[in-house]
Amino acid sequence: MKQTIQNPILKGFNPDPSVTEANGKYYIAVSSFEWLPGVRVYCSEDLVNWTHETDILTNQCDLRGNPLNCSIWAPQISFSEGTFYLVYTDVKSTNRPFKDCRNYLITATDINGPWSEPIYLNGSGFDPSLYHDEDGRKWILNALWDYRMTTSNKSSGIVLQEYDPVKKHLTGDFKKIFDCTHLKKTEAPHIYKLGAYYYLITAEGGTGINHSVTVARSKNIEGPYEVDPHFPMMTSSDHPDWPLQQSGHGSLIKTKEDEWYMVHLATRLIDGKYPILGRETSIQKVYWDNSDWLRLEHGGKLPAVQVPVPEKYTGEVEQSTSRLFKDVFDSEKLNKEWNTLRIPADESWLSQKVHSGKLHMKSGESLQSLFDQHMIGKRQENFEFTAETSMDFEPKHYMQMAGMALYLSAETYLYAYVTYDEHSGKVLRMMQSVEGSFQLLEDIVELPENESVKLRVEVDQVRAQFYYQTADDSEPQAFSSDKDISFLSGGYTGNFITLSCQDMNQFQGCSADFDYFVYEGKD
């Protein structure tokens, strides 16, 4: 029986995939939005089994103050003549009617860097893509944002402009090469050359239920482009019960055996409504039909949940529904599994005490800050998981707090934290925010001073139960009732499990030490 690839291939928050091949390996780059380091990259030798290779944007961008759902959008990675190229958008605002975008290009000869300083390209829209033509010319595409449009989404089509790699800037004027189809909201452009045609692959319909892949072609890179008469090429829009929803944002790759695959964005919804894991990456096998149009190998327009492995693949499919991550903080650098919000993890607020195996975190601003949140976060990859940490923290004021949260954004989170109460001393409390609507929950537990406390959360679909344990407890104690966490859904990212420390009285006025962190998940 032939083996298959089970979708999604990259679980949890891994949206807007772009794929390339270099030196016999395949690489997928995904969006990171406000989380740093930016642009996570996965590697595979066979398109079947993927591992986290690196994260590219370390100190090349300043995300402080960037609003919710902005920052690093839709990176596109390519490889040409021994060099990796990455183009990406840093979105600074999305308030209508304008969208302030900055598109950049960086290069490296090794996927792990060092990467060059960013070259500013333009700001006419988002989702830039770089095409290396056969004649040596290079072209930048991006979605065009037209503030004059009366619709809410003002993506008006795709523009093309030549890039001069010697002078390192765009040259000439941009040209609009593609208008939206009736699906509208056209973005995520990529160009591929096959035979006499340039093929333009775009995402349309927005990133919600109408998300789709549209294909157009032209014998001239500057157009005009004709649309596939049977568009969209792929969509889940007509099947709301299908396991892979919101499918779109495709990127193509050809194997050395001339098989074609497409990676794309998709979401899995709990109860048909809640994308708690965020937007994930899936893969489809595709082919070119007798009319030279792109088609799904299994037929139709629905993305397949199980996809054939490449014909000459002889290895084992190592995909697993379980996931174990344990960090005892015993190295000099923070494990690459972690991300931080808008600011890099540097020694000004975060350090690992190698001799004692503890993560030392100085306090920052509140969980709603867009500037100095001192927090590390690990993606939620499974619908069912447990996460646990042990923390030393001695607050002296109610404005000081540290703990573990289920965190979607600065407006939406559930936070179990240790703080100080004027009447009870050191206590465990819980707060939540739902799209900016804040609530301090009534539950409160007194804790012994100068002792560690273990915090644990168990999540099953849209239910979460927090636990705590001190030296006096023989086993974990339930803290508060189990919570409905369906509100940790939506936006462009996915849920994170975070460790953080705050002091709203004095910046870096206190600190917390975390002894370990364990995440164990299964689907």
Structure report:
Helices cover 0% and strands 52% of the residues. With 523 residues, it is mainly beta. The strands form eight sheets. Strands 4-26-29-38-31-32-33-34 form an eight-stranded antiparallel beta sheet, with no helix packed on it. β5 and β6 (51-57) form a beta hairpin. The model has no long low-confidence stretch (mean pLDDT 96).
CATH evolutionary superfamily of the largest domain: Glycosyl hydrolase domain, family 43
The profile of the biggest β sheet is:
8 strands, antiparallel
Whole-number count of domains? 2
Shape call: globular
Give the percentage of residues in beta strands: over 45%
Under the CATH scheme, which class of the largest domain?
A: Mainly Beta
In spatial order, strands of the major sheet run: 4-26-29-38-31-32-33-34
Tell me the span between the first and last alpha carbons.
24 Å
* Beta strand count: 39
Mean pLDDT: 96
